[in-house]
Amino acid sequence: MKHLPALVLLGFALPLLAGKPNMLLIVSDDQGYNDLGCLNPELITPHLDRLAREGVRLSNFYVSWPACTPSRGSLLTGRYPQRNGMYDMIRNEAPDYGHRYTPEEYAVSFERIGGMDERELLLPSLLKPAGYTSGIFGKWDLGALKRYLPTRRGFDTFYGFVNTGIDYFTHERYGVHCMVRDLEPTREDVGTYCTYLFEREALRFLDQHHAKPFFLYVPFNAPHGSSSLDPRIRGTVQAPETFQRMYPPVDESFQDGTRYGKSATVPTRAKRLRDYRAALTCMDASIGNLLKALDDKGIADDTVVIFFSDNGGGGGADNRPLRGGKGKTWEGGVRVPCIIRWPSRLPKGVVNDAFLTSLEIVPTLLRAAGAQVPPGLVLDGFDMLPVLQGKAAPTRAEMFWKRKDFLGARVGNWKWVEMGDKGGLFDLSKDPGEEKDVSETHPEVLARVKAAFHAWLSEMNSAEPRGPFKDF
Ligand SMILES: [Ca+2]
Known about the structure:
Blueprint: H1 6-17, E1 22-28, H2 46-54, E2 56-58, E3 61-62, H3 68-77, H4 81-84, H5 103-107, H6 110-113, H7 123-127, E4 133-139, E5 157-161, E6 172-173, E7 176-177, E8 179-181, E9 184-185, H8 194-209, E10 214-219, H9 231-234, H10 241-244, E11 254-259, E12 262-267, H11 269-296, E13 303-309, H12 331-334, E14 338-341, E15 350-352, E16 356-357, H13 361-369, H14 385-388, E17 398-403, E18 406-411, E19 414-419, E20 422-427, H15 443-462
Parallel strand pairs: 1-10, 1-13, 2-15, 3-16, 4-5, 4-10
Antiparallel strand pairs: 2-14, 5-8, 6-7, 8-9, 11-12, 13-14, 17-18, 18-19, 19-20
Helix pairs in contact: 8-11
The protein binds calcium ion.
């Protein structure tokens, strides 16, 4: 290939890259709908509060599944979990019931061999032709085998853990080390609290790549409960003492309790709550340092920052005024805190009540980047920028959830839920807490919403088959 002088290359590249925003996508893990300092003054989140003051806070923003793996897969593919094939967790549940895997046994378990179908196109690979460099630092959760790792799925660089949860200090899950740099396991940081590590790596990425358009994905595992076989650790969220001390002191002793139906020594409720909040505040401090880096490099105006929680809160979280939490198709499981800041394009300090979801993120960022959607690729969302700008624009009409036999549908302001013997039809415009089942007084609405759900399910069932769960 003929080498062109650098100035010619630069002159060619600059107009193409001009106007392309940088992207900082921050995802928290199991943070409750009400868990922002700007909503609840008992919590300390000054940097997320700043983000809300400088951007748009969304009050009706949903994820596509009420727990980690499918929500994150949907985020990066822009497709419903039932369409991209990752519609349940990549997770071994036996340790919850006391089973202790040997390393050999664990290595061939589903948690280590399952992954996002390789035919799925992830956001970083769609952004690459538009000139973006992509990095991910944090929780991957879409497969642990090399073929599934981020740098095989469009990311240029990765440091983090591959599965759905770890001990924040040892970086182990069930006694097996889980940190990976690009494609290789690494023990370089054993003993260091992992939020600090993800911040460190994200700051390093910004130092190296801020001069050209970038997509920086920082999926923290905070404030998710710690993964450990020890119920004293497993029952809470690890957090550095510096951040624990920012909250009123609690009794640090443990108590007799139960874990998965067996007697166990567990943390007190007060300690769990304090630890959850401390982990959240620590993550907030890291987010503050990332925002400061954007300021210091003079790129904040042209960087779109998106923050949301991957699913509703569990454990020490507060999902008020919503009903239910993580794992459920009630609002508290799928409607999450979300803030989007883009100083050059979006208003400041606005709370926007539009019905939007994480499925909108891929189309919005592709449009912002001037990137093409490959022919034939079905995306389940739309460019939400006009909605975020407060322009008269159509918002989402409907959204559907299915976690095993837990079902949910929102059509307009109507929400239908079916979870075993619980559920009903709710009018979210009057009843965001899903307290008053109006099925009997609005049978025609119930029939319409259920019909919409089944039409969606039928479409998902007839979509091109994808692994790992579908039998095809
Ligand atoms: Ca989660």
